[in-house]
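Subject: design request, 324 residues
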C-alpha cells in the first residue's frame, strides 16, 4: 500500500465489470476514508451489488485497479476476505441453528483464537440485544433481530471495513433505525462502513454518498453537497387538496422539467423558480384552485437523484438514436 492511499479504506480507479457484452459496472473511481460511513445509492440493477462483490473479493474486475484494506482487488482477494466483514440482504444465517450456534459457526469460519471466542460471542449477544434469545432457533426471530445477529456475525473477527449490501431490505422502520444506531457505534469505533441502499432516508445518515446509475458513478459527495451543488434546476413545492390534478396542470407549463407527487402536494423541477412560481399560482387559480403559495425549497436527495438520472438519460438519448 502506498502512502497516497493509507488514509483510505477503499480506493478505486476505473473499476469495471463485464458479463459478456453487458457492462454491469463502468469505470468507477472513488476513495472511502477510514472510519467513514459511505453510502452507495441507486435503483435496482444499477450495479451496486456487483461493485460490492468485486470489493469483497467475490468477483474479479474486468478492468481497473483498486485496494481494499490495503490489499489489491485483482491479486489479493483472499487477503481482502480475511480483513472485511460482509452482510448481504439475505442475512446469511442458518435458521435451524440457535443464536449461539450461529455465532460459534462464524467464529470457526473466521478462525477466531480459542481464548477470544467466548469474549467475542458475549460481545455479539450484548450488541444485538439477544441475551434472552441466545438459545432460540434463529428461524423464530423477527426480521430486526435476525438483522442484528447477522451484523454481529459479520464483525466477529473485528474487521476494519464492513460491507452491507441493502441490509435493511424488508425490515420495519423501527428496526431500520435501531440498526443504524449500531452502524453509528461501529463507525465511532473507527470501523469503515460501506453500505448500499435504495432508501433515501437511509442515504441521509451517511457521511458521503456515491450515486450509481446504469453502472456509472454519476455523483459523489456528502448529502448536503449533493443537495446544494448537483442540481442545475430548482425545486418548487406546493401543497393542495387535489395534487394529481395540480400535477397535470403544472407539467404542461413552460420551464417545468418534471413534476412528482410528494405527500399531500407536488414537487416541480423548474428552470427558474422566480419565474415559475407566479405562473404556477396563476394557472392553478384559473383552473379553480384556491389562492395557493408555491415556494422554492432545498431539494431532497430524491429530487437530486431523479434530476441526475433524467439528465443522464437526456444526454444519452441522441447517442442511442444515432447508433440505430
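Subject: RE: design request

Done. Sequence follows.
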Amino acid at each position: 500500500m502506498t502512502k497516497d492511499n493509507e488514509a483510505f479504506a477503499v480506493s478505486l480507479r476505473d473499476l469495471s465489470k463485464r458479463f459478456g457484452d453487458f457492462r454491469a459496472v463502468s469505470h468507477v473511481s472513488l476513495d472511502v476514508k477510514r472510519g467513514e460511513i459511505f453510502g452507495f445509492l441507486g435503483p435496482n440493477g444499477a450495479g451496486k451489488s456487483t461493485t460490492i462483490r468485486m470489493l469483497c473479493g467475490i468477483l474479479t474486475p474486468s478492468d481497473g485497479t483498486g485496494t481494499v484494506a490495503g490489499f489489491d482487488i485483482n491479486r489479493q482477494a483472499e487477503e481482502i476476505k480475511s480483513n472485511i466483514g460482509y452482510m448481504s440482504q439475505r442475512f446469511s444465517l442458518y435458521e435451524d441453528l440457535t443464536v449461539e450456534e450461529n455465532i460459534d459457526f462464524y467464529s470457526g469460519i473466521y478462525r477466531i483464537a480459542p481464548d477470544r471466542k467466548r469474549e467475542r460471542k458475549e460481545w455479539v449477544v450484548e450488541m444485538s440485544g439477544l441475551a434472552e434469545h441466545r438459545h432460540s432457533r434463529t428461524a423464530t426471530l423477527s426480521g430486526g433481530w435476525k438483522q442484528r445477529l447477522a451484523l454481529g456475525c459479520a464483525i466477529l473477527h473485528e474487521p476494519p471495513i464492513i460491507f452491507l449490501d441493502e441490509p435493511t431490505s424488508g425490515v420495519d422502520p423501527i428496526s431500520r433505525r435501531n440498526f443504524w444506531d449500531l452502524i453509528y457505534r461501529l463507525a465511532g469505533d473507527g470501523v469503515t462502513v460501506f453500505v448500499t441502499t435504495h432508501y433515501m432516508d437511509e442515504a441521509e445518515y451517511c457521511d458521503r454518498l456515491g450515486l450509481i446509475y446504469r453502472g456509472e458513478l454519476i455523483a459523489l459527495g456528502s448529502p448536503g453537497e449533493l443537495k446544494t451543488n448537483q442540481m442545475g434546476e430548482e425545486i418548487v413545492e406546493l401543497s393542495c387538496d387535489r395534487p394529481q390534478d395540480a400535477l397535470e396542470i403544472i407539467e404542461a407549463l413552460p420551464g417545468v422539467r418534471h413534476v412528482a407527487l410528494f405527500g399531500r402536494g407536488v414537487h416541480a423541477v423548474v428552470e427558474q423558480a422566480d419565474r415559475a412560481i407566479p405562473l404556477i399560482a396563476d394557472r392553478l387559480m384559473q383552473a379553480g384552485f384556491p389562492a395557493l403559495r408555491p415556494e422554492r425549497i432545498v431539494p431532497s436527495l430524491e429530487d437530486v437523484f431523479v434530476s441526475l438520472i433524467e439528465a443522464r438519460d437526456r444526454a444519452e438519448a441522441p447517442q442511442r438514436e444515432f447508433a440505430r
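The longest helix spans residues 301-323.
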